[in-house]
Every structure is written in C-alpha cells, then in structure tokens.
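Write out the 3D structure for:
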Amino acid sequence: MTVVHAKIRTEPKPLQLTPTVTPVTPTATPAESTGPQGIVQTGIVTFTEGAPVVPIDKATITLLDENGQPAASVVAKSPEGELVASQLIKATGVVTFTPTDKSLLQVMSFRLRFKPRMPTALS
C-alpha cells in the first residue's frame, strides 16, 4: 500500500506502508454432563473471542456434521463409531445431549462454525 505524505511547501513523498495482520484464535470451554442413560442432558459451551476487537457473533453458531456441513443436530458416536446419542446446540451455547440406551463412557467431540462480527467465517 502506498501512502502519499505531504507537508506544506514541500513536494509530496510516497511512503510504503506494510500492514501486519495478527492471527486471532477464539477458544471454547467444552460442556460436560453426567446422567442416566436415555435421559436428556444439557451443558453450556463457553466461547471466548481471540481478541476484544473481534467479538463472536453468537447468532451464527452452527453445528457441523461429520462432513463439515451445517446440521440441525448430529449423532454422537463412541470412539469405535457406534451411535450413542444425538446432540443439538443453540446460539446461546447450550448443548442438548440425548443418549441412547447404549452404555457409553466417552463420546467423540463435535464441531461448530461461527462468525466473528466481520466477514470471515471460522470453524
């Protein structure tokens, strides 16, 4: 980018300006829940922006399926790939987890996509 700097009674002089873009990495604190099999459970995922100047637009939080496509809900799988529950997430960060009657100890995590209050989507 070239900026022209001029003082009164002198010739304008072009100056070279190279902006530096600093990466911003938002984070999330996972939600966890414990309860009986087959009973709906909820937890709240807490999102933290990577910098105060790049706030998260919570209205854009979208659950992604295993192919990275937006989904209204996703199935939760065990590390072995067995269906063990369904999951939903709301823009507030509330995750609804509905386990099946299968015994489950650990569920694979799921992905979300959201946008900062700027034009670039993050996931």
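The radius of gyration is 23 Å.
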